[in-house]
Amino acid sequence: MRPAPDNKEGLQGQLKTIRKRQTVIDWHMHEHEPYSPKLLMYQGIYRLETA
User: Fold this and answer.
1) Helix (H, G, I), strand (E, B) or coil at 18
2) Who's near 25: CB < 8 A, 6+ residues apart?
3) What is the arithmetic mean of pLDDT over 3-27?
């Protein structure tokens, strides 16, 4: 993984990662197991990163 040339691109990358994770959370929400351990783990990570 190459380092970002400037902070802006780094932030864009972080936003993409967070969006991807939000998508994973939404996907799990719509699955038949809304309280799966994996979902709770993802939500915990997501909250930590966006707090």
Assistant:
1) helix
2) 39, 42, 43, 46
3) 68
The structure tokens listed for 24 are 């994973």
Comparing 17 with 47, which gets the higher pLDDT?
17
Residue with tokens 């970002």: 4
Domain boundaries, the chain: 8-43
Type of residue found at 40: L
Confidence of residue 46 (pLDDT cuts 50, 70, 90): low
Distance in angstroms (rounded) separating the CA atoms of residues 15 and 35? 25
pLDDT of 5 higher than 70: no
CA dihedral 1, 17, 51, 39 (to 10 degrees): -120
